[in-house]
Amino acid sequence: MNNKTTYISKDGLDKLRAELDEMLAIRRPEIAQRIHDAKEHGDLSENAEYEDAKNEQAFVEGRIQTLETMIKNASLIDENTSTDHVQIGSTVKVTGDDGPETFYIVGSAEAKPAAGRISNESPVGRALLGKRKGEKVVVKVPAGDFSYTIVEIS
Questions:
Q1: Which of 36, 113, 145, 148 is most buried, with most CB under 10 Å away?
Q2: Is the pTM of this model over 0.85?
Q3: Domains and CATH numbers, the chain
Q4: DSSP 19-58
């Protein structure tokens, strides 16, 4: 079982709890009913519905375990982040070779790079953490090195 701390916003934690509630209250009973109905059709060795329901049950049970672990190990991101250095929960405006960019540093559970929400565990997130306004940051990635200058932290 993974006991790694999950850094997450209050909104993100609420979404995880809602998903867990849905899995426990709705999905699990639905699948149990599907398995029960499939068993009543007789021979289980050639019953595709039974196999499908069992596979879905395995997925749902795995997701329930993952959600429970993430919630148990959740550490809320402080909404009142410092503006003198980058930390989880900071919005960082940088300029680089591709022009200005804005990153919101979040935990890996909430990362959506296309939306500018980058994980504290990503190469860019790791490079920015702890840095201050005006500092130049070099990010080493497989595609090459990127350099950013921190313009603003909020």
A1: 148
A2: no
A3: 6-76 (1.10.287.180), 91-153 (3.10.50.30)
A4: HHHHIIIIIHHHHHHHHHHHHTTS-GGG-HHHHHHHHHHH
